[in-house]
Amino acid sequence: MVLLQLDPFLNELTSMFERSTEAGSVWVTLKRSSLKSKVVRNKMATAGEAIEYRCLIRATNGKKTISTSVGPKDHQRFQASYATILKAHMTSLKKRERKDKKKSSESDKREGTSKRPKKS
Is 111 in a helix, a strand, or coil? Predict the structure, then answer.
């Protein structure tokens, strides 16, 4: 797995979103990782050394996968840039169809149905 630096990752993520506006999806996953094997982590834990955890971020459109690792120092800057990219490319989402609560409750009252059973 090749890890990109933060800025190239964000640029490639932007181009993935732009390519998928008409059709397609982009999946982004975030995971806590130390980027060390389990054996090395166990040795560090028994030795009492602190393990620095990072955030592993992967993005894929089904054909191409990109990934990066963000440390605690760069987390705020990355999160702000990531949020800006998401807000800019959320325009192609479909609006959810919702039922009007007032209309559905009025129709229930007219039909004589109620959600609570009648007590005898």
Answer: helix
Contacts (Cβ under 8 Å, ≥6 apart) of 103? none
Residues with Cβ within 8 Å of residue 33, at least 6 apart in sequence: 53, 54, 55, 56, 69
Question: pLDDT of 33-51, one tens digit each?
Answer: 876 776 676 776 777 777 7
pLDDT at 84: 92
Going by C-alpha positions, the residue among 81, 78, 80, 57 that lies closest to residue 69 is 57
- Pair 32, 21: CB distance under 8 Å: no
Where helices occur in 20-100 by DSSP H, the ranges are 38-47, 75-88
Residues with Cβ within 8 Å of 50's Cβ and at least 6 positions away in sequence, in order, are 44
The reported pTM is 0.66
